[in-house]
Amino acid sequence: MHIYAKRDDRLRNLFGNKIRYIEYLFGLYKIGGYDSIVHAGGLTSNYLLQIAMAGASCQIPVHILINGKRPPVLSGNNLLEEIFARSVNYVETEENTNSGIKKEYAESLRKKGGNPLVIDYPISNYYAHIGYMKAYEEIREQISQGDLPLIDHIYLCSGFHSYLGLRMAADLMNDPIKITAFRASWWKETGLGNMYPDLNEFLLEKVREFSDFCGMKIPSREFDLNDSFAGKGYAKPDERSVRSLRLLAETEGILLDPVYTAKAFSGMIDTLEKGQHAAGDSILFIHTGGILNI
Asked: What pTM does this model have?
């Protein structure tokens, strides 16, 4: 058995998988004549930090809304967001999504003569899927060039965006590869989980929506996305994820993070310990980034 790591945490210094989404959003920003970007998320969001850093490097003002209380001492992602973003605003909301606070803040910018691009559903989903469909194509190219063997199973940490991009790409190419994603939080504890108790039905709906957006039929119907290694919940590492973080650091010098990737690595290790892979399998773990949350 061989285990490989695809280092999306090395796509660009301090970035991770979200940069695959952001390049498409910045294309929309350019052709749409916008003058700023508005996005919202949680305290430990990698997406918010990465879009703030990317915006700064491209001279695009990024306004960040964080759902939560401002920490008394800023560190990690929150500290860097203050450095790179045009503005950082802490807003507490009980809504199932952050759409409301984004729209409200964007309207305040419009009243001042601005024209902000609001990163929100559904276009945020579509570009995220496209980003990881491209990543899957990249994996196939690496296999064809001999940089990777034929992969039997892919593991990653994903809420659902990156996972669906990979799954839909593989199904469109009729590849029999297995893809497993471990969520960093319990589905039932999220706003979307409250709206869609059945995760599988939710994923089917996202595939249908994306099919309509693309104007083509996407055959994806079976999914392996679960929250069985979410531990104590979002941004709450447990002993398994900390042990996995140490294991990869000590054996390969690769740093995971306890919020996201360490949980997925724990899930992969569990399948190995349970003997769910054949001796000759080639396994690919996608390191989606997140080291700044430590």
From this structure: 0.91
Task: Report d(CA 149, CA 258) in Å as an integer.
Answer: 29
pLDDT, average across residues 156-169: 97
Q: Which position has the token pair 């703030």?
A: 52
Q: How far apart are CA 224 and CA 156, in angstroms?
A: 11
Per-residue pLDDT at 27 exceeds 60: yes
Q: What is the CA radius of gyration of the chain?
A: 19
The half-sphere exposure of 270 on its side-chain side, counting CA atoms within 13 A, is 14
Q: How far is CA 103 from CA 29, 39, 66, 106, 280, in A?
A: 17, 10, 14, 5, 51
- pLDDT tens-digit profile of 37-66? 999 998 888 899 999 999 999 999 999 999
**Residue range 94-109, pLDDT digits in tens:** 777 888 999 999 999 9
Mean pLDDT along residues 133-148: 96
